């Protein structure tokens, strides 16, 4: 598509908006793997601007604190992480990178003996579980992650 045609199309969208029935999925294919990008493409999914709703199984919505993080032990851990400036009181991260978020999620779930690390924190933080897991795998390959893991051990005791 020529630049002029693209500009016209964008102007039309700006005037008329985009109406989508159902989910809109955009995909861009890449030829080589870059960082955490899997070979073959990057998928972006937009669900009409809506956040996930409560499922029929009663799982929490995005951002809502799951029951597994409402135990006394979990609340004490959260207080320690809040005092260290790592989380807000709603379990939301404070300026953490993807790898740091993944390390926090893993450390918390390990201490609480919760197996659904990526699903639990993915839902809580509005991230795909596989993205958090990929951040964790990346963290395990980085030397700087050792320092952050030590910091978490100090904070969580």
Protein model, in words:
With 157 residues, the chain is mainly alpha-helical. The chain has helices spanning 3-16, 72-83, 98-112, 117-125, 129-139, 144-156; strands spanning 24-28, 42-46. Helix 3 (98-112) packs across helix 6. The radius of gyration is 19 Å and the shape is elongated.
Low-pLDDT windows of residues: 28-61
Mean pLDDT: 75
> Helix count, per DSSP?
6
**What shape does the CA trace take?**
elongated
Sheet/helix structural class? mainly alpha
Beta-strand content estimate:
5-15%
Assembly type of the chains comes to single chain
The strand count comes to: 2
The share of residues in helices is 40-55%
Element-level helix/strand string: HEEHHHHH
Sketch the major β-sheet.
Answer: 2 strands, antiparallel
First-to-last CA distance: 58 Å
Alpha-carbon Rg, integer: 19 Å
Entry keywords:
157 residues; two-stranded antiparallel sheet; 6 helices; 2 strands
Task: Please outline what is shown here.
The chain has 157 residues and is mainly alpha-helical.
Helix and strand arrangement:
Layout: H1 3-16, E1 24-28, E2 42-46, H2 72-83, H3 98-112, H4 117-125, H5 129-139, H6 144-156
Antiparallel strand pairs: 1-2
């Amino acid at each position: 598509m020529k630049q002029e045609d693209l500009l016209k199309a964008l102007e039309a969208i700006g005037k008329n908006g985009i109406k989508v029935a159902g989910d809109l999925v955009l995909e861009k294919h890449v030829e080589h793997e870059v960082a955490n990008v899997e070979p073959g493409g990057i998928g972006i999914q937009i669900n009409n601007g809506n956040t996930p709703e409560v499922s029929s199984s009663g799982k929490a919505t995005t951002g809502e604190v799951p029951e597994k993080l409402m135990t006394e032990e979990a609340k004490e851990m959260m207080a320690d992480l809040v005092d260290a400036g790592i989380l807000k009181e709603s379990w939301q991260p404070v300026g953490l990178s993807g790898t740091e978020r993944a390390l926090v999620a893993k450390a918390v779930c390990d201490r609480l003996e919760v197996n659904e690390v990526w699903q639990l924190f993915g839902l809580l933080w509005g991230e795909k579980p596989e993205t958090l897991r990929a951040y964790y795998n990346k963290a395990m390959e980085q030397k700087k992650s050792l320092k952050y893991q030590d910091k978490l051990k100090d904070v969580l005791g």
